[in-house]
């Protein structure tokens, strides 16, 4: 009987040793997984910090773009202050060369000229031409027979100062 019991005890010892060996392997696997998890957590924290920095930089650039856009709009508005609006010209009256047309048909533009100060409202169907003031040089007086409705033509600054 002792022999049978000793055989059974030996079998149990072998099973306990194999179980302990399996538990040790699992413990080592858990330790490796824990280290890997810590490493991944560190990488994730680093990526989150980088992402916050990039978001802040993008927001800064978006604000700069908005500011530059506002400055561009202001500069465009300022550049238009020197423009002159001609209201009441028949459609395509200037033909191919608008500068030559203006030189031939408009009086010298003087800001104190009474026609520049008129506040008449043009008809809704009349086209509008916008030209730079500095394009118009010395030219003949206004009165060409090529233009119909000469008395309805109004010269006004596009953006009053």
TrEMBL record:
Coiled coil (residue ranges): 9-78
UniProt superkingdom: Eukaryota
UniProt name for this protein: Uncharacterized protein
The organism of origin for this protein: Cirrhinus molitorella (mud carp)
Keywords: Coiled coil
Lineage per the UniProt record: Eukaryota, Metazoa, Chordata, Craniata, Vertebrata
């Amino acid at each position: 009987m002792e022999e049978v019991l000793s055989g059974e005890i030996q079998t149990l010892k072998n099973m306990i040793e194999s179980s302990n060996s399996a538990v040790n392997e699992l413990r080592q696997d858990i330790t490796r997984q824990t280290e890997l998890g810590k490493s991944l957590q560190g990488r994730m924290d680093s990526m989150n910090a980088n992402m916050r920095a990039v978001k802040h930089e993008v927001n800064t650039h978006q604000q700069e773009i908005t500011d530059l856009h506002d400055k561009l709009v202001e500069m465009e508005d300022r550049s238009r202050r020197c423009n002159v609006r001609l209201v009441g010209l028949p459609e395509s009256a200037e033909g191919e060369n608008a500068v030559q047309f203006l030189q031939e048909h408009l009086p010298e533009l003087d800001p104190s000229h009474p026609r520049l100060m008129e506040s008449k409202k043009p008809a809704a169907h009349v086209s509008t031409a916008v030209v730079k003031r500095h394009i118009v040089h010395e030219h003949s007086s206004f009165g060409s027979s090529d233009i119909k409705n000469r008395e309805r033509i109004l010269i006004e600054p596009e953006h009053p100062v």
